[in-house]
Specification:
Belongs to the short-chain dehydrogenases/reductases (SDR) family. This protein is an alpha/beta fold and 244 residues long. It has eight helices and seven strands, in the order βαβαβαβαβαβαααβ.
Length: 244
């Protein structure tokens, strides 16, 4: 029996990168999974390769009505929600004074506001069933920062606070909320900024970028009952970056 046998999970930003890696591992461990993404072509293409246990729905994570549709879609197909992985995110590498208000707000809405909406609309169903695990993807830049990370760092620091507040509120209902803080991972978002990735790699004690699967194994632990007494905590997977 898999570690997620009988569980139903929603993973945002699930068409590629870490989200797709999480979804594959969840399926291997027995879960039924709904992946969501703004990229309908890639999302549906990915889901089509995995049968009825993996479904896709187009989703703007910053849109409240879209979140209601995702929850309804999941319940209609799988009857419950046990795990929410708030994985979707974007990043610009732009100096603060050069960043437009529009760019800043897009990062905040996608990375931060989406986590609020996800918890707001998924948690009531977990509370009703007296069980659930919410995993909010922050970043090592939710613990430290660097030049050019305005907006991204802001949103990832905010996720830490939201996670802790939600953990306190949901704990009496056996619903756990934790944040995960990946470092530099080999995802499309990171690899489209090769100069930044190279500079960050030099600063990592382990001297390499992580594979998405290395993060997925931590996400799996938090989604499973193996982490039944962990809530409100920060789990770092960054090759030692933040300890320097």
């Amino acid at each position: 029996m898999g570690r997620l046998e009988g569980k139903v999970a929603i993973i945002t930003g699930g068409s590629q990168g870490m989200g797709a890696s999480h979804a594959k591992l969840f399926l291997q461990e027995g879960a039924k999974v709904v992946i969501t993404d703004i990229n309908e072509t890639e999302g549906q293409k990915f889901a089509d390769g995995y049968g009825d246990n993996l479904l896709f729905i187009k989703h703007d994570v910053s849109n409240e009505e879209d979140w209601k549709k995702v929850v309804q879609f999941t319940l209609e197909h799988f009857n419950k929600i046990d795990v929410l992985v708030n994985n979707a995110g974007i990043q610009y590498s732009i100096p603060l004074i050069e960043m437009s208000a529009e760019q800043y707000l897009k990062v905040i809405m996608t990375n931060q506001f989406s986590v609020f909406l996800g918890m707001k609309y998924v948690a009531p169903h977990m509370i009703a069933q007296k069980s659930g695990s919410i995993i909010n993807t922050s970043s090592m830049f939710g613990l430290v920062t660097s030049a050019g990370a305005t907006g991204y760092t802001d949103s990832k620091f905010a996720i830490r606070g939201m996670t802790k507040t939600a953990a306190i509120e949901f704990a009496p209902h056996n619903v756990r909320v934790n944040s995960v803080h990946p470092g530099a991972i080999k995802t499309p978002m990171v690899m489209q900024l090769p100069e930044l990735a190279a500079e960050v790699t030099k600063m990592i004690p382990m001297q390499r970028l992580a594979e998405p699967e290395e993060v997925s194994k931590l996400i799996l632990f938090l989604a499973s009952d193996d982490s039944s007494y962990s809530t409100g905590s920060e789990f770092i997977v960054d090759g030692g970056y933040v300890i320097q």
